[in-house]
Amino acid sequence: MRYIWRKSAIALIVITTSLVVHGGRNQGNSELERDASWLDLNEDFNDPHTDHRSSKQSSARQKTSGDDNSVDKRDRAPPKSPKYSSLSAKAVLERAESVLEAINEKGCPTAEENLFNVTIYTADLRLAATTSQVYINIYGMVYGVEESTSKIHLTNHNMKEFTRGRVDSFLLKTKFVGLVERITIEHDNTGVLPDWNLDKVVVHDLKLGTIQTFICYCELAGYENEVSLPPI
Which stretches of sequence are listed as region Disordered (predicted)? Predict the structure, then answer.
């Protein structure tokens, strides 16, 4: 009788142990699965390429992200701003010709020199012309330090310079001032009609290839015969 109870007790212990072991394994497996799913979720969340929107939005995105409709491969329209618009072939040719003419006339600038084509637009207004001598200073930045040219007399020895509605261009070889950041332009209040109505100044740096416009639209008269202009 004792032998039978002993065998029954051993069998019960074995069954209980197996249940505990299998239960622990199942619980461990479920915990591991939860941990794995959490890790997968985090990996998806941290992955910048994972789309977390709804499946409908994701499928729509996938339809529009094919080879033919890829955002990177679409033809983008050129910017409308004239500041960033590309030059026509004719304009590029004219610019190249002006550079060659300047080099032929003034010589090729050295590393310490700039070559500018400065264009002055006198207003097309009554009494806009001036009989004064006109001067310009060009300012730029070189390694964080402001540099400037000397005061340059703008003249081509033409009696019609700075008359009403006239456009005058001047080739200037100066010291190197880097990218132009501002200019000052003035006249010396001489002649019969010294007051001058200036529309704008365009500075073409033939060395760096930049073209900058400086808007004035004001009258330089009397003691206010000088103006400092930033580029637009």
Answer: 43-87
Average pLDDT score, the chain: 72
CB 88, CB 124: distance < 8 Å: no
Distance CA 44, CA 9 (A): 52
In contact, 137 and 148? CB cutoff 8 Å: yes
Number of H helices, E strands in the chain: 3, 9
Instruction: List all residues 6 or more positions away from 88 whose beta carbon is below 8 Å from its beta carbon.
Output: none
Percentage helix, strand, coil, to 5, in the chain?
30, 30, 40
Residue-by-residue DSSP string for 87-156: PPHHHHHHHHHHHHHHHHHH----TTEEEEEEEEEE-SSTT----S-EEEEEEEEETTEEEEPPPEE---
Structural domains of the chain, with CATH:
89-106+113-229 (2.60.60.20)
